[in-house]
Write the structure tokens for this entry.
Amino acid sequence: METTLVLIKPGGVSRNLIGEICRRIEARGLQITGLELIRAKRETVEAHYGEHKGKGFYEDVVNYLLSGPIVALAVSGENAVKAIRAMMGATNPIDATPGTVRGDLALSIEDNLVHSSSDVEAAKFELGLWFPAGPIRS
Ligand code: CDP
Ligand code: MG
């Protein structure tokens, strides 16, 4: 049993894809154990993308996450980290396999709709940032 973090980025919220993305997660057999519609704080986003600090896209991706409301999801289930990562698809939607969220619903890397934790260690760190009080449903 694992729990991972998904963020529906501002583009996903503004395109009314909250339901579509949550539907896919639940249909797969995973459980949404935390869910919040929020305007992120800069310090949270900077910590979240800390591994990318100094890279060319860092400022842009941080500002993008701050540009509108986002949805934070805690998602739990067997092998949830890997299962969700595969469901979201490759970082650049042009390379993402059809059937994935990015492969079906996105076209540009700057607006690739979702974030998901890359591994179990990252999931633990990111869940601590976005759900400091812990998951709501267990
Ligand atoms: O989100 P993911 O883990 O698939 O990719 P990442 O390599 O950790 O990059 C984080 C985010 O930065 C991506 O989801 C993109 O939104 C953005 N990015 C970008 O705009 N241009 C790049 N060349 C790489 C990443
Ligand atoms: Mg990443």
